[in-house]
Amino acid sequence: MHLSPLQSRLAASFIASCLLVVLYLTLFSPNLALAAELEDAPPILFDDVDSDLGSPLDPMYEPEFAAFDRSILGRRQVRDTNVLKNNEAFPLNVVQGVTERFVFELSQLSEREPEVRSLELRDEDHTWEEQEEDEEEEDEEEDKDDLNDESLDTEPVDSNSDSAEQKLGKRKQGARQIFLSANTCLQPQAFNATKTTQPPPQLTLYVSTSTDNVEPGPDADSNSQVAMVFNEGAIMYNFTTTTDVYVGVHAPNVTEIFDGPYNMKIAISTDGYIYSYDVDNDADLIWVDSDSQGALLITHNLTDSNDEKKQQQIMEAPPYVLFAQDKSDPSINGVKYSFCGLEQYAQIATTKDGKYSNMVQTGMTTRGQGNFPKQQFFFSGLKPSTSYLGILAKTNATDPGSPNPVGGGGHVFKATNFQTKSGKLFSRDPGSNQVGTNAQELIQADHGNCNIILNLTFCDQVAYSVPSNSKFGNASVLAKFYDDYAAEAYGYFKKALAQIPCEAPVTQRYSLTRNCSDCEAAYKDWLCSVTIPRCEDFSNDASYLHPRAMSQPFPNGEMLDNATMSLYAEKYGDGKTLGKAFMQSRSSRIDEFIKPGPYKEVLPCDYLCYRLVQSCPSSMGFGCPLPGQNGFNSSYYIKNETNGEVVCNYPGSAHIFSGSSRDAVSVALTVVVLVLVSLLLAC
Ligand SMILES: *[C@@H]1O[C@H](CO)[C@@H](O)[C@H](O)[C@H]1NC(C)=O
Ligand SMILES: *[C@@H]1O[C@H](CO)[C@@H](O)[C@H](O)[C@H]1NC(C)=O
Ligand SMILES: *[C@@H]1O[C@H](CO)[C@@H](O)[C@H](O)[C@H]1NC(C)=O
Ligand SMILES: *[C@@H]1O[C@H](CO)[C@@H](O)[C@H](O)[C@H]1NC(C)=O
Ligand SMILES: *[C@@H]1O[C@H](CO)[C@@H](O)[C@H](O)[C@H]1NC(C)=O
Ligand SMILES: *[C@@H]1O[C@H](CO)[C@@H](O)[C@H](O)[C@H]1NC(C)=O
Ligand SMILES: *[C@@H]1O[C@H](CO)[C@@H](O)[C@H](O)[C@H]1NC(C)=O
Ligand SMILES: *[C@@H]1O[C@H](CO)[C@@H](O)[C@H](O)[C@H]1NC(C)=O
Ligand SMILES: *[C@@H]1O[C@H](CO)[C@@H](O)[C@H](O)[C@H]1NC(C)=O
Ligand SMILES: *[C@@H]1O[C@H](CO)[C@@H](O)[C@H](O)[C@H]1NC(C)=O
Ligand SMILES: *[C@@H]1O[C@H](CO)[C@@H](O)[C@H](O)[C@H]1NC(C)=O
């Protein structure tokens, strides 16, 4: 069969609409009507979740401190110096105003453990000048006669020796690189939380390697010690030494405002940090989408290797845990970089026995561009219209005595912000002339008309909010509705494609560079994003969003009022009326069965259409409207570098902050091709 080329720039969406009308007529199914009567499962409310813990939203809520030894509190007056063992965490309460002391004896290290000297030999091309620059910075703080060296990764470490010769001389005595790290697990709590918005001040770490100062602390000689204040409940410090290490941890005295001791874990290792954090690099966690009570987040690709064995191995064990917190709740302030602090104070934790962990489903997925393994976190039971922090963390070794203790105390990554949708249906301040802003009169409804769907069989890349209505069914029912719809349309496309000689010798094919697999893939990407609209609250006024189904009633039966209609008519129409593209959904099937009522759509990215035209035989008659042409504005949006905003929908779209220039180039190319296509079609 030869499909006659359609005249002019026929929108590809028109083809789909035709297919869908056919579908609708042939496949109208009474099952769907049945499904429409299904009641949604009741939403999980925050407070129902776990009665034992009390709600973290409750002002009386107090985290449980059971894991820590209160008995230490008893013996304040005589403080022994605690002995730190290599690679062993030391948990301890530190009472306000008190300095706890620790010693790390080098003699405990076995002969076989690598000395710094052996590392140095591999690092000869590093110049001493580089080190000396570093030394100057450190000189004010520390004046010990320890020995300095390069770490394995050739980064200069703290350094204060006088000359290279001296270093070489001392190295023979067996200098050790020391990684000292600590986490604040508990911090004093304000007597009156309404008076204090600040968290308690941080602990301070003092380190001495001089036998003249075996009790470092606020009262000791500052020339013989290094002092460092914890950062959000965490500290990391590395240096090299030939002598025993003396450590003091001082808790500030703020007993007038804050009650209780600090509790912390400290560890010294010659292998690496037991506790660590990294908030300089980009967050490893990406916010994909949310609805009024849920959110979907994924990690970056955990590997970019195509080796199946390696991928399978990674897929077996999700490596991360996640902490989440309502941003308006200050409980984690002061311990945001501390793994054990987050365990204690974060509202939601996916750790073993973590708080409210049943609000988060986590697992591995290969969804997204490149289909590489990543871990995903799917929240439910969140509060509507709320900003959250998601903090990814990782522990290396969970078994005690594991051969690799480095990172065993936990590594904390940079936090990612995410928001839930409003959960309120459209509402408008009657006194205001603005469209859809700041509700005074809230039209109460259960929870919005956007719902996240995922785990689709055919549109396997879809994982975002779609127009919904709780009367239609739960998320699984909704997902199946959209997925079946797309899969059926794809069936028609495959029949049409079967008429094209795909398997023919290259010279007889429709293109030298594209084959039928490319066409199928491009069609699927386009089809899924066109038939499964990405949904935003109707009250969201972002300029890239397209209002839909404005003539339809909301799930609670309310309609948009005339004043709102005229405001939108002025903004998008001729001032009096609005076109079909605004009054209805893109596909009538959505209005017919789901009946979401007014919502806003994140339009598919324009490149999905261009790629379809490029990849498929021109005899199939696909074309795309170009920017400025009729129909473009209500069909596509131009993909652009964005600052974490999803301005258009594409497979794997998410709130990604770092842009790439590759997309700009490919769009430019497709535009050239398109001009050609539309010239041909016009003939
Ligand atoms: C902390 O300060 C209070 C008064 O400000 C004082 O009574 C108390 O003894 C101090 N505690 C310590 C351990 O210094
Ligand atoms: C806490 O401080 C607020 C404001 O100063 C005051 O109104 C309230 O009574 C205080 N509560 C307690 C328990 O002291
Ligand atoms: C040691 O500390 C310095 C900063 O003082 C840092 O630049 C370096 O990366 C650290 N080395 C390691 C191995 O973490
Ligand atoms: C995964 O890798 C692919 C291919 O390199 C890339 O396009 C995609 O953006 C990556 N995904 C994430 C979440 O980093
Ligand atoms: C876990 O151990 C590996 C191997 O020693 C190390 O490379 C990695 O940095 C550690 N991870 C963390 C989070 O510390
Ligand atoms: C999605 O599928 C995965 C694996 O099949 C499963 O673990 C997860 O619970 C599903 N999530 C939802 C929301 O259905
Ligand atoms: C959703 O509804 C369907 C049909 O009533 C039911 O079979 C399924 O178990 C429900 N799924 C969830 C996750 O509640
Ligand atoms: C189509 O071309 C791609 C490369 O562009 C190739 O990987 C694929 O195997 C080809 N498919 C067929 C059916 O020839
Ligand atoms: C809104 O407009 C419709 C038709 O344009 C009209 O029938 C209706 O009375 C109007 N409602 C109000 C409250 O003005
Ligand atoms: C499409 O939108 C742009 C800006 O969003 C506007 O300038 C243009 O006039 C619109 N085109 C049509 C045909 O409505
Ligand atoms: C892309 O984004 C930049 C800045 O974010 C903006 O100036 C530009 O107009 C945008 N381009 C298009 C085509 O929307």
UniProtKB/TrEMBL annotation:
Keywords assigned: Membrane, Signal, Transmembrane, Transmembrane helix
Secretion signal, residue range per the UniProt entry: 1-35
GO biological process, one term: calcium ion import across plasma membrane
Superkingdom to which the source organism belongs: Eukaryota
Transmembrane segments: 664-682
Compositionally biased residues, Basic and acidic residues: 114-129
InterPro entries assigned: MID1/Yam8
Molecular function (Gene Ontology), one example: calcium channel activity
Biased composition range(s): Acidic residues: 130-156
Disordered: annotated span: 114-173
Pfam families: Mid1 (PF12929)
The name this protein goes by in its record: Stretch-activated Ca2+-permeable channel component-domain-containing protein
The species this protein was found in: Neurospora tetraspora
